[in-house]
Amino acid sequence: MTQSNNNSFSSSLGAIMAAVGSAVGLGNIWRFPYICGKYGGGAFLLVYLCFAFGIGMVLMMSEFVIGRRSRHTPMRAFASLSPRRKGWRYIGLLGIVTCFFILSQYFVISGWTLSYFFDAVTGRLATMGQDAAAIGCYFTEFSTSASRPVVFLTVFALLTAVVILCGVQKGIEAVSKVLMPVLVVLLVVLCIRSLTLPGASRGLSYLFSPDFSKLSAEGVLAALGQAMFSLSVGMGVMIVYGSYIPASDDLFRTSMWITASDVLIAVLSGVAIFPAVFSCGLEPAGGPGLSYCVLPNVFNSMGGVTGVVFSAIFFLLLSIAALTSSISLLEALSAWLVETLRTRRFVSTLIIVAAEIALASIVSLSNGMWSHLQVGGDTFFDFVDRLNSIYLPPLCAFGTVLFFAWVMPEADVRDELTNHGVLRAVYYPVFRFIVRWLAPLALVVVFLTSILT
Ligand code: PHE
Fold first, then answer.
1. Helices 174-195 and 304-341 sit at what angle, rounded to 10 degrees?
2. Is the Cβ atom of 298 under 6 angstroms away from ligand 1?
3. What residues does 374 pair with on adjacent strands?
4. Is the CB of 307 under 6 A from ligand 1?
5. In the structure, what pLDDT confidence band is assigned to residue 439 with cuts at 50, 70 and 90?
6. Confidence class for position 37, pLDDT limits 50, 70, 90
7. What is the predicted pLDDT for the residue at 428?
8. Angle between helices 89-121 and 345-365 (to 10 degrees)
9. Residue 33 CB contacts under 8 Å (≥ 6 apart), including other chains
């Protein structure tokens, strides 16, 4: 067997914090609450919980097993776990490609977030008052302009690179251990503010009151896609983090903690956002529209210093969530390059970051100056978005789960989940059934419906 990477997290807590950092991202804060409300509130939440724990968490455990068993990054992990069928390593490569595209888009949006954080702190957002048109206009002008988004995405990318350069324990683990609690505190502060606004209950009922008539087949598929994206599975990131998990950790418990925290933070984000939106008489929106057009209006309605403070808190929260997710993506790419080219971490990180900044700049510029840069009728931004949401993650997750359930020796899987026979793993028969049948079937359905509709 080839030499394994010799990095690791120092403790179970460090591993959980880092993986929660990866899982909690833009997906939790600006995507989950919106689609939850759109597809039937409590009804959607129920389906989402089933998918998060029944499929997302199972995929996460599978990736952890692959990573910890092999102590390698995806490509080599697949090759080393089935030495006679090395072709599977291309699934690992697909994961790397997926990480590469996702990170480019993530950097663009993280750059916007950082820029808005500055606008919030300097009071620039506040000067627009409660003028939805002006705020919307500002966002369009900003996101389509050439220089500012590129400058901020570059700053954000360099910040991410600094953490990676500090190493697995002193960088990723240390930063996650500080930032995740900060994120929770900021989120709770926002929740309290939002819940104490007049008319907050309308937001809560939008989020939670179950309406099964709104839960269409599309909503069910959206729930599965969201569960996978939110838990960062299907692109090999959790294989890399798995390779750093201490040998004595119970992978079931670790995955349970991560999934529960991720779901909780998604729900809290909804509680922080929608009561405030409804209390201002505004309409909920998803994605960029929510964070950059609707919410600044909400904060401005709080008036003066209060508005400035709460908008700064929100954009700081979003920046933290984006940073710890970007860290995991960059780590996966950089560790892969270290293993492939046998370079130093410093060199590989710089190469990847430079390439990502270049790609992210193209993605960003395609919103404005380079809008003529089209692929199949889509702007480059929309093309990358399509790759990231429809094609790459389900394909890669499908390949990973097939490998895990049908190719990798079952004895290795059992050995890893029971920590060489120390743990009992009573859940194993159910787990095995899900990875062999349910998860692959669900992924095929998601993939086919999304490309055919
Ligand atoms: N889980 C992150 C989010 O919810 C996104 C992500 C996907 C991060 C894959 C890393 C890897 O936003």
1. 150
2. no
3. 379
4. no
5. very high
6. confident
7. 98
8. 70
9. 207, 266, 269, 270, 273, 274, 284
pLDDT digits (tens, 9 = 90+) for 177-210: 999 999 999 999 999 999 999 999 999 998 898 9
Query: In CATH, what number does 12-452 get?
Result: 1.10.4160
For ligand 1, is residue 22 a contact (CB within 6 Å)? Answer: yes
Give the closest residue (by CA) to ligand 1 atom 9.
232
Q: Is the CB of 367 under 6 A from ligand 1?
A: no
Q: What is the pLDDT of residue 304?
A: 83
User: CB-based contacts of 71: which residues, under 8 Å, 6+ apart?
Assistant: 4, 5, 243
Q: Which residue, by CA, sits nearest to atom 6 of ligand 1?
A: 232
- Cα separation, 21 vs 19, whole angstroms: 5
Which token pair is 41?
Answer: 């509130």
Mean of the pLDDT values across residues 213-225? 91
CB neighbour burial string for 314-344, b if at least 16 within 10 angstroms, e if fewer:
bbbbbbbbbbbbbbbbbbbbbbbbbbeeeee
| Ligand 1 atom at minimum distance from 233 CA | 9
Q: What are phi and psi of 413, to 5 degrees?
A: -65, -50
pLDDT cut 90: percent of the chain above it = 80
